[in-house]
Amino acid sequence: MFAAANSTATADKATSTASLIAQSEPDNGNGDPIEPVNRVILDFNEFIMEVLLRPITQLYVFLLPNFALDGIHNALNNLNTPIILVNDLLQWEPERAWTTTQRFFINSTLGIGGLMDPAKDFGIEWHKEDFGQTLAVWGVPEGFYMVLPLFGPSNPRDAVGLAAGFFLDPLSHWLNNINREEIALARTMVSGVDEFSRVMDDLEKLRDTSIDYYAALRSIARQKRKADISNSAPAARATLSDLKYDFNAQFIE
Q1: What is the model's pLDDT at position 176?
Q2: Among 219, 194, 192, which residue's Cα sits nearest to residue 206?
Q3: Long-range Cβ pairs for the range 22-28 (8 Å, 24+)
Q4: For the segment 6-15, what is each residue's pLDDT rounded down to a tens digit?
Q5: In this predicted model, what pLDDT tens digit does every residue of 58-97 receive, in sequence order?
Q6: Among residues 194, 151, 176, which one has the least CA distance to residue 56?
Q7: Are 190 and 73 spatial neighbours (Cβ–Cβ below 8 Å)?
Q8: In sequence order, what are the residues at sequence separation of 6 or more whose Cβ sits closer than 8 angstroms to the Cβ of residue 113?
Q9: What angle do the packed helices 81-90 and 156-168 form, to 10 degrees?
Q10: 3-state SS of the chain?
Q11: pTM (2 decimals)?
Q12: How far apart are CA 44 and CA 51, in angstroms?
């Protein structure tokens, strides 16, 4: 009886994973020409996560109460407002730019420097924009699938957008100009831990329920990115947030 139940569960997992992969894999079969290299880089990223990032993140979540975790997340989002606003404007989305502006002023004042999110209570929701999305809106093709060391799933277009975000972030430039690189570095470290804390459990579930974790992660990353670019909600099973690490302090001289 138990063996039959286990077989059924395994079959369900296989069917679910296969369905997920089929939803967004390219038809021409050329979407991942460097898969062997990507798999090696993914293994490296997983090693770093297991030996360093996961233990630190688990301690971070264990020590801090939920309101503190939410406050840090809100503040980091608020600090990213200039990048979001610039990309709203570059994509010629004045309504979203106005939303971003309202959120910044409300949360920076009533929200005590962005630690709280009263703008959300007023119905002004947060949204994400970055230079990779802007390039997509401008018609730049995404290119092939690639896995970046530490940063994870990407493509050439998003890699260029990622670099642009590093070098154009005004807060990091300002901190470096006043010789306060340690603050930029602290932001970098906390940002990475905060983002990972929000996908850590989902990644573990995906790994446990996937026949091929690499292929499942690739599929979900593509679905999530497509949803970001179209300003829509991702598919029901594409629930992972971006694994986004802000290393501005290390890239700006």
Answers
A1: 86
A2: 219
A3: 23/219, 23/223, 23/235, 24/219, 24/222, 24/223, 24/226, 25/215, 25/218, 25/219
A4: 444 444 444 4
A5: 999 999 999 999 999 999 999 999 999 999 999 999 999 9
A6: 194
A7: no
A8: 75, 78
A9: 120
A10: CHHHHHHHHHHHHHHHHHHHHHHHCCCCCCCCCCHHHHHHHHHHHHHHHHHHHHHHHHHHHHHCCHHHHHHHHHHHHHHCHHHHHHHHHHCCCHHHHHHHHHHHHHHHHCCCCCCCCHHHHCCCCCCCCCHHHHHHHCCCCCCCCEEECCCEEECHHHHHHHHHHHHHCHHHHHHHHCCCHHHHHHHHHHHHHHHHHCCHHHHHHHHHHCCCHHHHHHHHHHHHHHHHHCCCCCCCCCCCCCCCCCCHHHHCC
A11: 0.79
A12: 11
Tokens of 31: 């979407």
The amino acid sitting at 140 is V
Tokens of 204: 């573990």
